[in-house]
Amino acid sequence: MSTAFPSKTAILIFANSADVELTRKVLSSDCKKDLQQSLFRKLNERTVRTAQKTGLPILIYSEKEQRGHTFGERFTLAIQDAFSKGFERVITIGNDSPELTPTQLHKANQALENGKFVLGPSCDGGFYLMGIDRASFQKTDFLNFSWQQKSLFTELMDFAKDENLAVEKLCPLADLDHVGDLKKHGILWIQKLKSLREILLSIDRKEVVQNLNFFLNIITLRYLQISFNKGSPIFIF
User: Fold this and answer.
1) CA geometry: angle at 210 spanning 175 and 188, to 5°?
2) Cα of 150 vs its chain's centroid, Å
3) Which of 1-5, 13-17, 123-127, 177-181 has the highest mean pLDDT?
4) The most confident of 19-33, 116-130, 170-184, by mean pLDDT
5) How far apart are the first and last CA of the chain?
């Protein structure tokens, strides 16, 4: 099947909407749901913008497009759908890696074009990015991986070894799954790429002020270098 897209590589964003994320990821009981929902929505928006900067075709699979009963089924079928649309290579990402950049996506695409299996390891034992081509994709194997478990990255590396696939391993990144991730990595995210700062600054400041204790407990607001009483939000990108 031929594709109508100029690139044979698609970026597959596998991420739920903010409404669904709110039911599955509770950052803190001390923070209003509206603010957490805003954070999830901004993470989704930033992920799309990051992917768009590559110029590659984008496929967005929220809960509306996903099929299957388990995460593994939904993820595997989404990749299969991308190949059924005519793409030869797929780069999968989620919405929870604030440090992800277009440069890393370009690097993944180049590695895929050179016949490599691409993995971007996350700090929790999973991955924030996976790049695979049509010939290497094995639906049965993918359905049997231990999805959302700490052993996942090791299993994928073993899969690549068994299939004699050359692996391109990107730099590790942290992902945002729960309040502990903000406590552990929030200041680093702000200092390094300021991606989280961009997201926080784009949220309604009244909501942030109302939940000030939440942010004080998670990250030191002085790193944001902003005043809530004057000036407009500063966008980094």
Assistant:
1) 30
2) 17
3) 13-17
4) 116-130
5) 38
Fold of the CATH domain 9-169? Spore Coat Polysaccharide Biosynthesis Protein SpsA; Chain A (3.90.550)
Q: In terms of C-beta density within 10 A (0-12 exposed, 13-18 middle, 19 or more buried), how is residue 103 classed? A: exposed
CB 167 within 8 A of CB 117: yes
Tokens 């309604």, residue located: 204
| pLDDT at residue 228, as a whole number | 38
* CB-based burial, 68-96: b 16+ in 10 Å, e otherwise: eeeebebbbbbbbbbbeeebbbbbbbbbb
pTM of the shown model: 0.77
Nearest to 137 by CA among 95, 94, 78, 96: 78
Question: Which H helix or E strand runs over 133?
Answer: strand 127-133
Torsion angle of C-alpha atoms 118, 121, 125, 128, degrees rounded to 10: -90
**Which residues make up the CATH 3.90.550.10 domain(s) of the chain?**
9-169
Q: For 202-232, b where at least 16 C-beta lie within 10 A, e where not — what string? A: bbebebbeebeebbeebbeeebbebeeeeee
Structure tokens at 237: 């990108």
120 CB neighbour count, 10 Å cutoff: 26
pLDDT for position 189: 47
221: β partners: none
pLDDT at 237 over 50: no
Between CA 136 and CA 113 the distance in angstroms is 13
Q: How many helices, marked H, and strands, marked E, lie in the chain? A: 10, 6
Backbone angles phi, psi at 225, to 5 degrees: 55, 45
